[in-house]
């Protein structure tokens, strides 16, 4: 079991990035010490809930350790007041904890809500500690569920979906956390926050979009990155690589997958006008994997030859899920992303045979919420059954956790701002799902220019899942968001540090979608100043 968990975590390392670590460089408006009431805090229950308990403790800070499988460490955290409010929804037998950390001194007057990762509804202390260190009062909720890979809450004792906890995880607990957290800030400081922000990546990104769609007045600004929107669709779609390998009876080795990815990046590198180790627009890369048939690849000291069957598997994975009749269901793994993340295989057995090793997050979604059968062997899913499972997930869960309502008119009316970056080499959440949603919003709300007034999307080349949180580069989205919310400075570009295909650090100004980056024709290819943003029609 431990080996299995380690395998899953190794495949899911980028999930750790979803314990979001924004560090706004904007100057705090008010860093003066404030009187702190960390002894008794009264909290009014949000609508539809009952407050079960409230505790308030002064913590001395120092080094904070992240809990659960995601771990993490934050040092030099100042003293803070920790207020924990436990809520329940009468009749649902749930117990959702809302935790708020408030700096004892140096509060910047801002409030920050924090999202989760995978099946973790909220923060594991790392984001809270980082926020407090940056002067924020910060709130998160566990929604009454478990850790990032804990799905023990999915089904009740009768084998039915636990609809109350799913509702908590999908939407209502984040809203209740915002209500409770703001009230705690007021009670502790004797003053309401001047501005409120939400930050999250992956599951946290989806939660940010849910806030904008369903609770548009909760936050002034939302930073929602690599968002797990279209959950009911992409979560099933990310099991597709396993379905392909199992049905084709072909399991390319990780180094073979890497050979396909490297060849595609090399072939499509110059689309932005220069070879710089970055595929600026992965959706335009049409590299045919059949070009590698017959190529020799050395894997763990053993020479392998790429076969037509290997190329066919890669082609299907890049193309994405289709019905047996050929109808497109969802986007595939982006060209340039790590194919082995979702197309994992087991270690060879005594006879040298391997089998598929699915990523736990989509496998559990299909087993528990869709099939409602914990014993389902996902390796036995045929193409026909995959289509049925995909369509069943859409039918049952789109309105619950799809988070893809393009009508953001209430969020616009409230004055809110939504900022998102998404890695174009995201191996877990296809980038095109986010692009597709942005285009749906444009159609719903009057075009790109109008949507740019409150919602901007930035795509990051060669960046994996939540990679700009320091795993695959960096970008200070929270600083850009606060400048937009508080000073009206809409970000035309998002300065970022990226890692190219050669492992070299480069700077780029990510362009606001739909603009794309183009080399000026001269200058250092590792410097952002050598590139400019142009419209796609000129690219």
UniProtKB/TrEMBL annotation:
Highest taxon of the lineage: Bacteria
The keyword Kinase belongs to this UniProt entry's keyword annotation: no
Span of the secretion signal? 1-26
Q: Name one GO molecular function term.
A: hydrolase activity
InterPro entries linked to this entry: AB_hydrolase_fold (IPR029058), Tannase/feruloyl_esterase (IPR011118)
Sections of the chain in a coiled coil: none
Keyword terms: Calcium, Disulfide bond, Hydrolase, Metal-binding, Serine esterase, Signal
Q: What Pfam families would the database entry show?
A: Tannase
Look up keyword Coiled coil and say if it applies: no
What family classification does the UniProt entry report for this protein? Answer: Belongs to the tannase family.
Name it.
Answer: Tannase/feruloyl esterase family alpha/beta hydrolase
Tell me which species this is from. Answer: Streptomyces cynarae
The root-end lineage is: Bacteria, Bacillati, Actinomycetota, Actinomycetes, Kitasatosporales
